[in-house]
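User: Before I run my own analysis I want an independent prediction to cross-check against. Here's the chain; please return only the structure tokens and, at the end, one sentence I can use as a sanity check.
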Amino acid sequence: MFKKCVMSILFFIAITLSTFGDTPRFLINNSHTNSISAIEYSELSNTLVTAGNDGKLKVWGLPDGKLEYQLQASYTQIRKMAISQSGSYAAIISSDGINVVELSVWNWKTGKKLFSKRLKEVPLFITFSPKGTFLVYGKTDWNSLVFLNAKTGSKRYPIREGFGIVSSAFISNSEKTLLTYNSSGSIQYWDLKNGKRKTKIPTTPDLKNISFTSSGRYMTGYD
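Assistant: Structure tokens:
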């Protein structure tokens, strides 16, 4: 049987027991049944969160690699994922690859869905603010950034002016400063308190696989 896999993780079969309140949750560690589409590390809980084309979220304890939680978050493929470093929340973008794109936010410990929204397209990126106050994603539009309350999904408007297509963003630990990379070729700093741009630095356009260091001082990408 032929399977096309972009990424895969292999774990030995084990049975783990996790408890929430007084209710035991028995989990069988058998990995994803399809390609892994996203991997995120939670420093707070020292866990690895994986999302797959099987629509599942799985949370693995480190360093032993035991499965702690699993969640059938979607019955379509998960395309992108972000996790909150301030708690056990995951935002996923799922799609059937045709015309349905959905954003949903989950508490992976309780299995509760906080909210969901239909989107017109798969976002260029999605990320939580460090304190988990809001969620931001980028779309292919002049007003590229969309800010949402991370727990309710209601829209926020910290920046009202158009600034081009943003393919990646970094939010300071204080949640007062936003750093964006624009595909047209610029790095921009924004004051989220007053919504004004601090500075704009020209750089190489159309960089891929953008990544920021934890301090936001350095950014990497390739063309």
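Sanity check: The chain has no helices and 20 strands.
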